[in-house]
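queue> pop job 88
queue> type: inverse folding (structure -> sequence)
queue> payload:
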């Protein structure tokens, strides 16, 4: 639990933990939430396609609707905002919008490694057209997850707390909130002011997680 703004990056990382009890009276303004989501969206993504969409729950009625979908977890209603991070199964459709302004600005290096803007777009389209059945889903989940992680760290750096949740019914979420088939729910992240610290957790030391130069 923290109420101070953390600016030291390593402190932010070390002090972020999964909070499950939030102050229901604490609110965040639309601008503050947008700022957090812009920071989240500065995450890297394959070809910079930005495979995420954020559904921000601030309205009490919408949060109440979310709660049974999230296995009754009360943090989704008590948090100042609960963000559903969706992954984009058709992120190739973002390519033109991402790269056209770059090309128009004459920044040729923006598609470094490709002979031309067109070659890059074609490769993206080919990747999506010829992909294995799991490719779109893998891409959606891995890229959206990076944004989710940044969201939690950004929140911590702003003196807020967060709690990620995969304990929700993705199909029910899609139905309840009219999610178009293009997107899949990846994670919920509750953000607000903790009223109870996160449970203490430990991590494996590097000796147990690192394999040098291959198995
Ligand atoms: C993908 C993912 C899903 C999670 N789902 C839930 C959840 O549904 N409910 C919950 O209370 N915590 C959930 N957590 C939090 C984890 O339990 C927590 O990150 C882990 O125990 C480590 O604790 P810490 O984040 O406080 O360091 C989830 C975490 C991740 C990364």
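queue> result:
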């Amino acid at each position: 639990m923290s109420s101070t703004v953390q600016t030291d990056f390593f402190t932010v990382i070390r002090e972020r933990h999964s909070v499950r009890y939030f102050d229901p009276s604490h609110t965040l303004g639309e601008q503050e939430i947008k700022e957090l989501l812009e920071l989240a969206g500065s995450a890297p993504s394959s070809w910079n396609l930005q495979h995420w969409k954020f559904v921000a729950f601030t309205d009490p009625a919408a949060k109440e609707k979310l709660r049974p979908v999230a296995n009754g977890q009360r943090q989704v209603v008590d948090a100042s905002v609960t963000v559903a991070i969706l992954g984009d199964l058709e992120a190739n459709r973002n390519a033109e919008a991402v790269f056209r302004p770059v090309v128009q600005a004459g920044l040729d290096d923006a598609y470094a490694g490709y002979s031309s803007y067109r070659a890059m777009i074609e490769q993206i389209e080919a990747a999506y057209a010829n992909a294995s059945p799991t490719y779109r889903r893998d891409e959606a989940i891995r890229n959206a997850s990076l944004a989710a992680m940044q969201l939690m760290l950004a929140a911590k750096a702003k003196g807020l707390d967060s709690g990620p949740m995969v304990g929700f019914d993705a199909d029910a979420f899609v139905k309840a909130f009219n999610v178009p088939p293009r997107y899949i729910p990846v994670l919920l992240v509750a953000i607000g002011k903790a009223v109870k610290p996160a449970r203490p957790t430990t991590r494996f030391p590097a000796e147990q997680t690192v394999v040098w130069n291959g198995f």
